[in-house]
Write a structure and sequence with these properties.
This protein has 260 residues and is an all-alpha fold. It has helices at 5-27, 29-37, 46-57, 64-109, 113-118, 121-162, 164-182, 184-211, 213-219, 222-254.
Length: 260
């Protein structure tokens, strides 16, 4: 973030703006429902009356037509901003990936001969090809996480206007449900490290086997090499499945209460 302050700020700002437009569009549903139902002025919801006051304060007519125009306009604005945000986040992500990959490549070729003689080329290849991309995806996820946090706080405004007591109870219940899931963080981290280590081993075996293919075929070691790669991939498969399952568990566990 320190190396790309403008890109990060622009990305997060656009994401927040898109979420804000989405929240306003959701809030506009309340007067649409009341107006379509033909509710009398005194029987409308609190949110509808607040929005009506805003319309009158801006000197705009309050009715089904103007509210629909505002509703559709907010969705259009949100879509445009969301597209710009995706582009900004992608540019920031690949700027980071480029610097990491080129920087690592530069450091490798500025190293001494001993690095190439005794280094694990499989781990290096996996880092350049896979792990750098994972870092870029993580950078992207951080931006969306910050925007989602702001979106959550903004969405809380709507139920707080309707009933702060029910909203408070719902938030406290969600926090209670979240406590057991927080304990999975250390296990997920350990499984992620195991997945990376086993992936390095698979890449190393494949790279070394292809590099020494003539010698392997000449020595009749074909089946042994295939078996080694197969065992390494089975270990990586088990670690990767466990890690991805733990990573998806929190969002899936929240689906029944609508927080996924």
């Amino acid at each position: 973030c320190r190396r790309y302050p403008c890109q990060v700020t622009a990305s997060v700002g656009l994401l927040i703006a898109a979420n804000l437009a989405g929240v306003l569009a959701v809030a506009a549903v309340a007067p649409i429902v009341d107006l379509c139902a033909g509710a009398s002025p005194g029987a409308t919801s609190t949110l509808t009356r607040r929005i009506e006051d805003v319309f009158h304060g801006l000197g705009l007519p309050f009715g089904l037509g103007p509210v629909l125009v505002v509703f559709l306009g907010l969705h259009a604005v949100r879509s445009v901003i969301a597209i710009l945000a995706e582009r900004s986040v992608a540019r920031a992500k690949y700027a980071l990936v480029r610097d990491l990959m080129v920087g690592t490549f530069t450091d490798v070729f500025r190293s001494r001969w001993s690095f190439f003689w005794g280094g694990d080329r499989g781990a290096l290849l996996n880092t350049l090809i896979r792990e750098v991309t994972v870092v870029g995806d993580g950078f992207r996820a951080i931006g969306f996480l910050l925007a989602s946090l702001i979106q959550f706080l903004l969405f809380l405004l709507v139920p707080l206007v309707l009933s702060w007591e029910v909203t408070l109870i719902s938030v406290l219940a969600a926090c209670v449900f979240a406590l057991p899931l927080l304990l999975l963080g250390r296990s997920a981290y350990a499984c992620g490290r195991r997945s990376t280590t086993t992936a390095n081993e698979v890449v190393r075996l494949v790279q070394e086997s292809l590099g020494a293919a003539k010698q392997i075929l000449g020595a009749g070691k074909r089946e042994e090499v295939i078996e080694s790669v197969s065992r390494a991939f089975e270990a990586h498969e088990a670690a990767a499945v466990r890690a991805q399952t733990l990573q998806s568990l929190p969002s899936l566990a929240y689906d029944p209460i609508g927080w996924g």
